[in-house]
Amino acid sequence: MDPAGRVAIVTGGAAGLGLVVVRRLVGEGALVVVADVDEGALAAREIGSGVAGGHDRGGERAARELGSRVAFVRADVRVAADLERVVAFALERFGGLDVLVNNAGGVSRGAQWPLASVLEWRATLDLNLSGPMLATQLALEPMRARGAGAVVNIASSAGLGLAPYDSPEYGAAKAGLIRFTTSVAGLREEIGVRVNCIVPHWIGLERAHAELAAMSDADRAAAPPFVDPEAIAEAVVWLVRDESLSGRVVEMRGGSDRRLLDDGQ
């Protein structure tokens, strides 16, 4: 599927990796709905002329860069009504839906399971697993109506392997997102919708660079190289374009080529 002229939703697209993906999709000619919980984020206000409330000078600067092909909708992917509103907005504003990038996610900065309350750890599951599953479910009919669709889930290396992990709920959610992806490979044959997943290791975003700088010299020397956010955005475009891929998982390590995982990995 050529992204040019296609309608995409990117959750968590107002900052960080999501913003990099949005800019890349717009550069490919797509029309993009940015769904993010923080409507006050600077990046959200500056993303383009379609941004709700984006009338400040920063918005004007970004409008010249990205134009009217981007629109912002405040949405929390943990809230079903918000996701329903995002999909409805894409249909009303741009006339359809072809691409969904389930990028929103993250680890709680508070207590982790088992010290976290039920509400806290369930919120992590909702953000990283239930939300993407529901967004995908809501996108199926609009995509089927267009004859094809592509969903790209952004998971994490926290969902791979068998080693202990500091946030069990986050690791479990990302593992679930990976398995969800592989479980729905048959949607391509059924309704023409392809669901694939990217599993990046340590992403070279601002927060990661700050964490690296705060390490001791020894720890910094032993740290793995970052995954370039632009390389992840490139992988998103690749998965949108390559119609032979469905239910596949792409691992990305810093300093290495992306690789498709098979059933034994």
- CATH architecture field: 3-Layer(aba) Sandwich
Q: Helical content, roughly?
A: 40-55%
Distance between the termini: 28 Å
CATH homolog superfamily: NAD(P)-binding Rossmann-like Domain
Shape: globular
Work out the radius of gyration: 18 Å
Mean pLDDT across residues: 87
**Continuous helix count:** 10
What are the SSEs and their pairings?
Blueprint: E1 7-11, H1 16-27, E2 31-36, H2 42-45, H3 57-66, E3 70-74, H4 80-94, E4 99-102, H5 118-146, E5 149-154, H6 168-183, H7 187-191, E6 193-200, H8 206-213, H9 217-222, H10 229-241, E7 249-252, E8 259-260
Parallel strand pairs: 1-2, 1-4, 2-3, 4-5, 5-6, 6-7
Antiparallel strand pairs: 7-8
Helix pairs in contact: 1-10, 4-5, 5-6
Describe what this molecule looks like in 3D.
With 265 residues, this protein is of the alpha/beta class. It has one domain: NAD(P)-binding Rossmann-like Domain (Rossmann fold, 3-Layer(aba) Sandwich), CATH 3.40.50.720. 45% of the residues lie in helices and 15% in strands. The protein is built from ten helices and eight strands. Strands 3-2-1-4-5-6-7-8 form an eight-stranded mixed sheet, with helices on both faces. α5 (118-146) links the parallel β4 (99-102) and β5. α1 (16-27) packs across α10 (229-241) and α4 packs parallel to α5 (118-146). The radius of gyration is 18 Å and the shape is globular. The two termini are 28 Å apart. 43% of the residues are buried.
